[in-house]
Fold each of these.
Amino acid sequence: MFFTIGLYISLTILVVGLIYKVSGWFRHSLTSADKELGTGARLSSTLRAVGGAVLGVNLASMIKAFFLDVLLLRRSFKEDLYRWGMHMLIFWGFILLVFMHAFESQISEPLLPDYISTLNPYLFLREFFGLMVAAGVVMALYRRLRMPRPRLRTRSMDVAAIIIVCVIILSGFLLKGSKIASQSEFMRMVQDYSHIYYYEEEVEALESYWVQNYGLISPDLEPPFPKELLAEGQELNDLFCVTCHSQSQWAAVSYASSKLTHPVTSRSDGESLVSFFWYLHVLAVFAGLAWIPFGKMFHLVTSPLSLLTSSARGKKTDPEVSAVRRNMELDACTQCGACSERCSVGVAVESIPNNNILPSEKILALRAVSSGHSLSSRDQKALAEGLVVCTNCRRCKDVCPVGIDLQDLWTTVREDMLRNLVEPYSLSQLSLDSILRDQLRTRKDEPFWIAAGNMVKDYYGDAASREIVLSKKANTDQELVRSLENTFRYCFKCKTCSSACPVPDYFENPVDSLGLLPHQIIHATILGHSDLAASSRMLWACLGCYQCQEQCPQGVRVTDVLYAQKQAALSGLKTGENK
Amino acid sequence: MNDSKRYALFRCCTSAPHMPEYEQATDIILEKLGLDVVQINEFGCCGYPLRNVDQASWLLASARNLALAEARGCTLITVCNCCYGTLKHCAWLLSRDQALHGQINRALRKEGLDFTGKARIRHLFEVLEQDVGIEHLRSRIVSPVKDLKLALHYGCRMLRPSKVLAMDSPDNPVLLDRLVETLDAVSLDWDKKSDCCGAQIMSTDEGLSEALVKEKQSRAVDLGADAICVACPFCQLSLGRPRQEKPTRPVIAYPQLLAYCLGADVKRVGFTVNL
């Protein structure tokens, strides 16, 4: 009764949860363009795309992907053998347990004619599958706690997933262990499978034999037993037991755990302990089942979907289908951290304290955006920064174990976000990919790096007006960048840097056009006026060609100073300082 | 100094998605010349784009790659000037600033890495000249591009700052000339050889970047060059961007040209010059 009600409750939650989550793919919008695409249109386009893929040329590649990528985790195998081994153990251990053990009466009994859960090989196999999961979990714990993975973040979802798997597996072992040790279990079997239940002497003989050989812990009997008693027990065992019960030692871990129950089972028939672990095990399984749509384990559904989708992706995809796919992909991410580990600029989080630089963490922010949570302006800025600090190298996409097109997510959201928001770091080579794609535009229909340039002008603009310069005091104790060794202090204003610089040659009146020339930027640096440097077009026109530094007779690291000034200017824009 | 003849090819983030033929050509060269190359998947960004926004991010990204190469006992080779200059500059800076070196290493140790300064960073062209040897290279050429007139474009971060890079003369470089001569091509004399391509400021001063490219292209046309030959993906991107003004000269990368001359299929190296 309890079991049936519990099962139906958890299945109901599972199904309702699945419907709720999957419907989100058709309701939620990651970008403003996606908002225009209605649920109905998305539904019909997606059905058409799925139908086309299944009926069309993609079927073969999808079947291949199902076996290699879904069942054998090929993408993980290529990338990280440890992670692959860990996941294979948990995945296959669980799958096999589900088929052989959880669906015992639906699958094992009808399909395997000799199937008896207490008889080898099944007794041993169930134990072995459980051990596979346990080994995988130990590997997962070791990876999270001990391995040097600075960009792997552990969140409550990861902890919850590990805990629930642990409880299911451990309670399974302990349930079996307490059954092995329990007298009440033994008596139940005697009653069910022999006709000696009412013959005390025979039962004693068999019980002694089981205490001696099967790990039974009896509150009434204790070894050593007389030989004749054991011999009689063995006879009875051969008669009633061996045909459907292998020795408990084959379930090695459970057998070992049965010893732990000694304090209880040596004083009672152990029934309460068996029922305690049974409830624990069954409740943990129900909880796990009901939790699937809402936590990390949702990837049981989404990972295969994502892998199949990526294997079937055609040349042209409807925007409706892309919108649905992106939402689904956001749900397929488990924050496993493979992308963040390999992200070409991931290490930058050590200096720029923004988790959104890491791809796997960016997904969390995108999920919030997609499900309609309005981000605070601070969170928006952090997300925009995370989207811009990216070299668009596509490594994240290549290494994602579930084949999420991460690069597409970044590009699409960046394009959308930077229409309304200026991100100072876009004023750098980090915008190169967008320039080459010639796609990204702001609302005013200008490239977003131009908007960032205008932001610099607005922010530092006044600095260059001469009256302000004259009224300023030298700010000589400002430490610009330690690694420059203050070489700029050796400048004697010979202007060699400005004549070596190729930039002024392109202007009729360089001083008017560029604001400051390189030697003047050095001078501004000496005086501690970074704002002045920031306001000059020269700083942003610096080619980084090192002609000035090469030619400087005083060994001033001119180009390096200009780089430092650019960094200071951008950091000033971010922090609101340096003005 | 780790003088290993085992090379780790450092792949540029920009060339991989935007100019696959650049990378493919490099792979062909390394394979045809039988160099011992290991693939280090963990390599990340060289730090060049990060340098424009945050000093420590640049150094972290650079030093991480160097530490990876050290851990595998490899000489790191680049085909991109910007990667080359940036990585070498980082090693130079850290070797002169113990405090900074310590700070960077503290972060790297979190992923089990340590930059000691032993890592050797070399441009593919250095390897070709010094390890393979000009004569040997010449002997391996099967399809020379006889009399192909090239306007050579070295690119800044292969040459300057010469104190840091010490690879070739910053004003009158010769390495690429020597390499091009092995292919029987002609290096035309022009004064833009060691000038900047303008890629760096494509986002910060688009107009100026355009003007630079326009001038170079028109000079190359006036010079009678068949093509501009570059040594860096960024130069190729910048100088080769499709533009309104005609005529222009195609921009080929030396690795593409060399791969072709070593006998690779034109299609595989993405060759665009009509020979």
Note: The radius of gyration of chain A is 34 Å.
Amino acid sequence: MSERNLILAGLDGDRTWRLKDYMARGGYAALKKIIAESTPPADIIAEVKASVLRGRGGAGFPTGLKWSFMPRSFPGAKYLACNSDEGEPGTFKDRDILRYNPHSVIEGMAIAAYAMGCERGYNYIHGEVFEIYERFEEALAEAREAGFIGQKILGSDFSFELFAHHGYGAYICGEETALLESIEGKKGQPRFKPPFPASYGLYGKPTTINNTETFASVPFIMRDGGETFLNYGKPNNGGTKLFSISGHVNRPGNYEIELGTPFSELLEMAGGMRGGRKLKGVIPGGSSSPVVPADIMMDCTMDYDSISKAGSMLGSGAVIVMDETTCMVRALERLSYFYFEESCGQCTPCREGTGWLYRVVHRIEHGQGRPDDLDLLNSVTGNIMGRTICALGDAASMPVQSFIKHFGDEFAYHIEHKTCLVPEDVQREGSKIYVGPSC
Amino acid sequence: MLSQESLKLIDVEVAKYPPDQKQSAVMAALRIAQQEKGWLARETIDEVAQYLEMPAIAAFEVASFYNMYDLEPVGKHKITVCTNLPCALSGGVQAAEYLKQKLGIDFNETTPDGNFTLKEGECMGACGDAPVLLHNNHRMCSWMTTEKIDQMLADLAK
Amino acid sequence: MLEIEIDGKQLQVADGSTVMDAANQVGVYIPHFCYHKKLSIAANCRMCLVQVEKAPKPLPACATPVTNGMKVWTNSEAAVKAQKGVMEFLLINHPLDCPICDQGGECQLQDLAVGYGESKSRYQEEKRVVFNKNLGPLVSTDMTRCIHCTRCVRFTQEIAGLMELGQAFRGEHSEIMPFVEKTVDSELSGNIIDLCPVGALTSKPFRFAARTWELARRKSVSPHDSLGSNLIVQVKHDVVKRVLPLENEAINECWLSDRDRFSYEGLNSASRLTKPMIRQGDTWQEADWQSALEFAASRLKAVVAAAGPEQFGALAAPSATVEELYLAQKLVRALGSDNIDFRLRQTDFSADGVAKGAPWLGLPVAEVGELDRLLVVGSFLRKDHPLLSQRVRQAAKRGLKIASIHPTADDWLLPVAARIQPKPAEMVAALAAVLKAVADAGGKAVDGSLQSLLPAVVSAEAKAVAELLGSGQSVAIWLGNFAAQHPQAATLQRIAQEIAAITGARFGVIGEAANSVGGHLAGALPRRGGKHAAAMLTQSLKSYLLLNVEPSLDCAGGAAARDAIAGADFVVSLSAFDSPELRAVSHVLLPVSPFTETSGTFVSAEGRAQSFVAVAKPQGDTRPAWKVLRVLGNLLSLDGFEYTDSEAVRAEVLDVAAFPVAGLDNTLDGLSIASIAAVDGLERVAEVPIYATDAIVRRAPALQRTRDAAAPLAYLSAATLSAQGLNAGDTVQAKSGQGSAQLNVAIDDTLAEGCVRIATAHESTAGLGAPFAVVTLERV
Ligand SMILES: Cc1cc2nc3c(=O)[nH]c(=O)nc-3n(C[C@H](O)[C@H](O)[C@H](O)COP(=O)(O)O)c2cc1C
Ligand code: SF4
Ligand code: FES
């Protein structure tokens, strides 16, 4: 099996997140080396490029390339932001990284700041995991004390101040420009791009934003080389990645595996299907990625290219597994409610469209569907997609389109018979309170 | 009026941001104010806004945008259950139903004794721990079987 | 420059242009709601989606920067499909109540829906309902109609300078609202009505008054301040129903102050004087024009004959037209008097005779945006000149640094980089210190006449102001209304002139009223040793002619001015309004037209002459004042009153086409400078509140319900207050050498120490007399 813990390396549950444990695992060696050798920033960016590390926040954008967009000589402040606002349904990896290995994120950010000349950074942490925010503050205090962040780091000329900022219940702040607005003390409403954050970011200054896992991968890359990291994955899909598995499996949880590992292996790691039931569909990359029916999914490997070929996205690596007891209309109804609830309300198609989508799916689920509802849903999603300020509009639309595409019969049955294809009691039994053996 | 302790905590937050960006601390300041007062009355929001030298409506925008701020009084224990799809697949909805039945209230209601308020939550980034719920915004409770819910309610009622 | 092709049209646009800018340049209309040329780009409505070559999805024209060689289609199938999709979303939650909506007929949504909407809605779910908000007496809300374009929010933040509205809550639950229990109190608030593309924000006074297509639209000019904002006055059956801005980039841009917008209610006030009236003993009788005019002429003639022409004088409002002011002075002079004035609030007239021309702003308003340093001396800038302040505010965003010398430090909603807060009697010393500092810094000599004013040591504050002025490329110094009304106004102006000479700045006087410049050009002030306004009002003359003057509210002396006039044998009042006071002091009342019912000309602060014509028929028997003065001249058998139209009158005063008009000059030549006299005691600081400036505004009910129109209090700093042994909330009797008034006391910690701020131009404070005085406060 290709389970390989680089990011969750050497961790023993909740006990070894402290600075001394991290250092015992070789932590901060990369940062120390860079500072001792005054590594040219361009070399660091080149190394990250060589690793083919792709952003772990969802879009999979090559990290090295993103770093190279930051203006080199800019008069005034430049900023770095870490996106730990994990709130995409199904995703719960960043929480574990911050819980078990917070210093890997701090070290990754310090290296990134060095490479891009940022003088300040913020880690934006999802509000609902407030205990993680408090822990991160503790870790920051340790790192500050040890001179890994702050003024004149390790006696060099390099200074980097890093702070934690917490969210307080708004999914949209995971979108990088909404996150910046939120740090500025405003509502988390995404900005229109261009200008991109690399030229106009936090407080209007050049800013780079990466996901927690992206930063956490950087120390390994700098210590063991980009090449090594790349080789743990497959071409164009460098390294290991955390997958958060939830839903109808025996052992939900995070699994760090090499990119390119077959889905079937991942499913096996997660203990296989709960109660031995049949797989119906998988949402492979967080709730906004299109759902993939069981047979197609079983042929996929877990990497950006394979999942994309299957018509979906690797996204944040949140794998939601649904078995045959799942009513796909009800599943979609819940997701559509989520996007309706979380739309920031700024742009017309999303503000008005997500409510429309939810209400129609809700009607269908509650036996009030109409024959032309599926056409209507497809048409409304078509009017939302690609016309909004941020990708939440697309995120709300893709589940609707893919659920109808792959499970259209079930929707049609609902509309015609005014009830679920999967009997109510079967659904209840399949989704009753379940706590896996690992917990 | 906010207590000196709260204002001190707010000052710590303000110090995280550039000197001309006090407003950046508004989320933390509102959180601190809410922790002290239990919920965010309009006067409290106004006070936070004045303290951070920002327009009151801008602070209200923030307080009303983020779910975890309570603009109305809540019970001593606010319990927020995630019912989003990943959690629902492992009993999130059924845990919420169990809570409703035990407390005799629906979502967004408070028990007559003012002890418990129940809220429906969106994804908390802890789907692997389903069923999950938050106690008073900051304490996350994982793998909440009916037995654990019983235990929790008993502990909190003490 | 960048090349772009829009709908097949090639053009070049400046770097940094958006597709919307480019489309505007070639006259291609792209539908939009949130975009507004004066506001920041929000790109939230998505109505302006267009097709761009090589772009995988439609892009919002308002926010998409032009790239070289870009090809755009605003009307292609893909673009129209995207626009229609957005329109459908906008309409799903929008009520279909156009027939009862005040925006009906001028609604962008309605207009566009005709072109882009479908006739039948596919949305079968329940529509959203949003509760209305109380924004105050001026703006009415119907929030269910809101389409969340956030123009109003951005206006309050960016143009008005204070975020009074926000978009609270999230997603579909979003609501535009002020903070709980707060209203929108900006003096520019009415502009959000124009900005709102739907009927969510409408005019409260105009509510249901008329449908837009019933209204005639006529151009006019605002009479309320020296900016000369251009108006569209909307009239139905000869009644003014609404006032909107007429866009003029050089003056008011696309904005209006609330005073300009809502004052029209005063025109329709019940206290309009609509019939000539003659006093007989203690009773007033309506009269026809013929007998009223003959009565006035014969009595005037008799008084002049009996007491001599020097016992006759005329006082005219500074908001009177050039034509009216010109004929008034002509009449006075033809009768052999030189007693004429329109500077009713002025207290220092020592510049008369040494002023080289009419005091004016010193630069075109349009150039305010190019200034990088500005010193404002003695001004309640924001409330005195709402739209000029707005320009300064925008300039401040581009780097203009502002300094103020004034006893108050009201929030102008713009950054003030340096500030000196002298007591009123210390204004000259404060400005002289700045003069010394700039002279020292530049190694320049100060004119001998001013030497006696220069302090031995220069305060740090004065140095800071001097440094600020010295570091600019494009510098201006303005004297505000407070400086112009100051007992040492001429000295202040002379010092400003010297500072300007040393620093290379331009300097000017902002001017309090619509014709503060025009009155000088019309010669409505003594020229041959006659009496100025204050002289006419300290001792009674035997006879007065009043032109739109309410003595106790319009004149510096307050009630004392009224008493002086009341002592005359014969007073003829030309007035648009009837009032107990006018009945008490006058012997004949002649109803004359306010600006909407006559033709005339105002010359604005920047020296722009703007003529206008009547937009409505005179109410009742009202007649234009210029005609009344002409007939009076004829009845008095005076020469040179044979005018057939108002243009002929104007032609004798100025060339309306010249800009700036001839005769403007702020230079004082040979002013004799008095030394600075120290003043002991609590000094009064008196502003003319924004909605108390003139007779029309004072009668506009909605404006009078705003917070800015609240009855005056006596404000003191906390320290001064306790030094006086008083507490906030106390009721006091304020006394000056001229009189007294009873007021409640409140704290204003932005006020200079040793001062009490008591507004003038209000009935409750008129008894106190002059605006500059030492005042004592006694608790009652
Ligand atoms: C609606 C929405 C929600 C998002 N949520 C998250 C999130 O919770 N965490 C995250 O890292 N990225 C999230 N993203 C992606 C970020 O915008 C951004 O692409 C990412 O943080 C960049 O980091 P990376 O390049 O390291 O992936 C979200 C994007 C959208 C449109
Ligand atoms: S797509 Fe939705 S979440 Fe994104 S900016 Fe528009 S309204 Fe806000
Ligand atoms: S006008 Fe461009 S998005 Fe509204």
Note: Residues A 172, 189-190, 343-347, 350-351, 388-390, 392-393 surround iron/sulfur cluster (ligand 2) (CB under 6 Å).
